[in-house]
Amino acid sequence: MTEHSDCIFCRIAGGEIPCDFLYADEQIVAFNDMHPQAPVHILIIPKKHIPSLAEMSEEDIALVGRINLVAAQLAEAVGIGKSGYRLISNCRADSGQEVPHLHYHLLGGRYLGAFTQQ
Ligand code: 5GP
Ligand code: ZN
Q: Over the Cα atoms of the chain, what is R_g?
């Protein structure tokens, strides 16, 4: 039982829900999004339950920095390092955030368009 047993991403990170991790370390796991919006759509999450970027604190700076590094390494590993990619974290209602556990979408494998057109 995780501390946040009602949180789907805590349960995935804690191994309660089986999931093929593309990356895992003591602090971070990454796995494919179940509803991919691009040929590559990976979710990168901290194991620590942080509801969104809005609840990030000073003590999380290294963790969030590491997520960015893991994103770049994963992008290389899955073959989109050269073609390019986007890293997004939705925060609260107007962003459409559905899962209230901090996560980053790594998207690529097709032209994603200018962000301002979305
Ligand atoms: P949000 O809108 O919160 O930024 O994005 C949540 C993402 O998590 C969505 O893209 C959704 O498809 C994905 N997702 C939600 N539940 C699960 C799950 O149980 N497994 C996987 N692999 N992805 C999930
Ligand atoms: Zn959680």
A: 14
Q: Record the pTM.
A: 0.96
Cβ–Cβ contacts within 10 Å for residue 102, how many? 26
Query: From the alpha carbon of 90, which atom of ligand 1 is closest?
Result: 4
Name the H helices within the chain.
8-13, 61-77
Taking only the tens place, the pLDDT of each residue in 64-103 is 999 999 999 999 999 999 999 999 999 999 999 999 999 9
Is ligand 1 within 6 A of the CB of residue 8?
yes
Residue 4 annotated among the catalytic residues of the structure:
no
